[in-house]
């Protein structure tokens, strides 16, 4: 039997922690075939981002045509889009897809938008113009948006509690999960889920104490898309996605890869590993 197909539209991370590296590994781990449309190539490691090369608009459109004309995409996830042109092009595709499927059709693929604006290392991956394009064009057509607290504040244009921000952003149309919480302070993470017209609900789970968290947000939004591609309802998909992230963080918790914030594990831990004779320092 065929696996469901999920499409990530995102940038690359040469260090293999975030972006398409995280997305495709997460899809594979969760039994989903992953297709990818690359929007930007970053030179990046655990310490930061040293170069960003946006992919030309025509090449993004050609990749979208290739995937969407051929594969039965069951969920779409967007990560780093990087430019206003890319945000607008994706929003237009989503509108086109909803027209093609009929706006009430159950076969319309859900669209998970991770509004990537700033990397864990602090690098800016989308400026003020990109932020505006998300608010004006992509959020209104998304199924669910997954900002962390900083991204939620940026998108809302002001400070506020995660539940207030989730409720406000849900007013633009999509369901919203404001991720994070304050694990250092409470030992617990709280993601706030707000669906349009409903009160926000806290989704709590134990925090894994580690600084190896580069790629966490990409992994979460991909896991959410993978569970939606399998047909899970949103709340269940969000809970499973957080549990997947926690499991991967627990795996890489004590790793010492790189000089900065190390990667979340993208290993498939329920597979037997080949016997290794090599260890890295
Ligand atoms: N230390 C942690 N332990 C367990 N889960 C975590 C931890 N840090 C973040 N998460 C979870 O990872 C997911 C992604 O959240 P977050 O880290 O806020 O994304 P981002 O990388 O965009 O900042 C959320 O479900 C969040 O609760
Ligand atoms: C290409 C790319 N996409 C997304 C992120 C955000 O991930 P993180 O918040 O873990 O740095 C990133 N650093 N690089």
From TrEMBL:
Keywords: Kinase, Thiamine biosynthesis, Transferase. One of its GO terms (cellular component) is cytosol. It comes from the Bacteria. One of its GO terms (biological process) is thiamine biosynthetic process. It catalyses: 4-amino-2-methyl-5-(phosphooxymethyl)pyrimidine + ATP = 4-amino-2-methyl-5-(diphosphooxymethyl)pyrimidine + ADP; 4-amino-5-hydroxymethyl-2-methylpyrimidine + ATP = 4-amino-2-methyl-5-(phosphooxymethyl)pyrimidine + ADP + H(+). Pathway: Cofactor biosynthesis; thiamine diphosphate biosynthesis; 4-amino-2-methyl-5-diphosphomethylpyrimidine from 5-amino-1-(5-phospho-D-ribosyl)imidazole: step 3/3. Residues 13-264 form the Pyridoxamine kinase/Phosphomethylpyrimidine kinase domain. Gene3D superfamilies: 3.40.1190.20. GO terms for molecular function: hydroxymethylpyrimidine kinase activity; phosphomethylpyrimidine kinase activity. Pfam families: Phos_pyr_kin. InterPro entries: HMP/HMP-P_kinase_dom, PM/HMP-P_kinase-1, Ribokinase-like. Catalyzes the phosphorylation of hydroxymethylpyrimidine phosphate (HMP-P) to HMP-PP, and of HMP to HMP-P. This is Bifunctional hydroxymethylpyrimidine kinase/phosphomethylpyrimidine kinase. It comes from Nocardioides luteus.
